[in-house]
Write a structure and sequence with these properties.
The chain is mostly beta strands. It has no helices and eight strands.
Length: 116
């Protein structure tokens, strides 16, 4: 990730269909945070990012639950919109900056099984 991202927080907002970034600044005995532009944001109803981890290759890996239904109490358990077979893992890397505005991003859909 770019140098200015080091020490930032990356988190998920599965209800808002987005992956968020926060810059931390030391203040007194704690920190303040400033929300930056979302790393990923969509209006796709099934995009449900539930976890994000930094991989050993320096890329961010985002687990996407991929389900339009998020609560059991609102919708019947037998509702056909419940997706119990799909999920996605997104790999996000920074490309070389092509302008002074900032880096462009590459998001790839992982279609194979995890292997070590």
């Amino acid at each position: 990730m770019p140098d200015d991202w080091q020490g930032n927080l990356i988190t998920n907002d599965f209800r808002g269909h987005r992956v968020c970034r926060y810059v931390l600044t030391p203040e007194g005995s704690g920190y303040t945070s400033k929300e930056m532009l979302e790393l990923i944001k969509t209006n796709h109803p099934a995009f449900r990012p539930i976890d994000v981890k930094m991989g050993p290759d320096g890329a961010l890996y985002i687990a996407d639950w991929y389900n339009p239904i998020i609560q059991h109490g609102e919708v019947d358990f037998r509702d056909p919109r419940r997706d119990v077979t799909h999920g996605r893992i997104w790999r996000v890397t920074a490309r070389a900056a092509s302008s002074s505005i900032g880096p462009s991003w590459s998001v790839r859909r992982r279609t194979t099984c995890w292997r070590r």
